Each structure stands twice: as C-alpha cells, then as structure tokens.
Amino acid sequence: MKDTSQRDKPNQFVYKGKLYKNVSRYKVVGLTGSRNECPTCDELFNSIRAFEAHRVGQIGVDRRCLGVEGMLAKGMAKNAAGFWVSIPYKEWE
Ligand SMILES: [Zn+2]
Q1: Which residues surround ligand 1, an ion (CB under 5 A)?
Q2: How far, in Å, is the centroid of ligand 1 from the Cα of 82?
Q3: Residue 42 falls within a domain, yes or no?
Q4: Residue 59 is assigned to a structural domain of this protein
Q5: Which of 8, 42, 50, 65 is deepest in the core (most CB within 10 A)?
Q6: The pLDDT value given to residue 40
C-alpha cells in the first residue's frame, strides 16, 4: 500500500505579504548571481560575502546565524530589494 501523505511536505511560503504554493522560492524571490538564501534562518543575502558575514562561531562547535539585531549591530543592512548586504551602500557621487 502506498501512502504518500507523509511524504508530501507542504511547499509554501510567504514573500512580501503574498502566499506562494508549490513554486520554487528561488523563482519568486529572484535569486540571481551570488544572491542566496540561508537554509537555516531563511534570510536573503545579496552576496556570498554578506551570507558569510551573518554566520558566526566555529564550524562544528557553535556555528550559527546572527539574528537581525546581530546583523544590524555588525553594520549590515537590507537593500531596497530586501537582501542583506554586508556593507550598506553609501553615496558615492
Ligand atoms: Zn542564517
């Protein structure tokens, strides 16, 4: 007997106030280039560097994600698209 009810995990998430079902989050959010999403805390990052910046502690010992407050304290910020950047853009002109 086949019972697939245990196997089918709900594949849905909320992004910008809208509920998405059975669609790749990557497609909706538009992860391109080095943009990435942390599989642990679900935050979105504009670069690998920003992602690395929010991971603290020693691998295999106490590796963990910085929370939002920790990231802000570190000088990180979210850009207009909702991705964390390691160094907020300053006015260059
Ligand atoms: Zn994380």
Answers
A1: 38, 40-41, 65
A2: 15
A3: yes
A4: yes
A5: 50
A6: 92
pLDDT tens by residue, 14-69: 878 888 888 777 677 777 788 999 999 999 999 999 999 999 999 899 999 999 99
Give the Å distance between the CA of 68 and the centre of ligand 1.
10
Q: Is residue 11 part of a domain?
A: no
10 Å Cβ neighbour count for 58? 8
Please check whether residue 53 is in contact with residue 76, taking contact to mean a CB–CB distance below 8 angstroms. Answer: yes
CA 52 to ligand 1 centroid distance, Å: 9
Residue position matching structure tokens 């106490």: 62
pTM above 0.85, yes or no: no
Count of domains for the chain:
1
Tokens 């080095």 locate to: 34
Domain residues for 81? 31-85
What is the CA(75)–ligand 1 centre distance, in A?
Answer: 16
Residue 2 has pLDDT above 60, yes or no: no
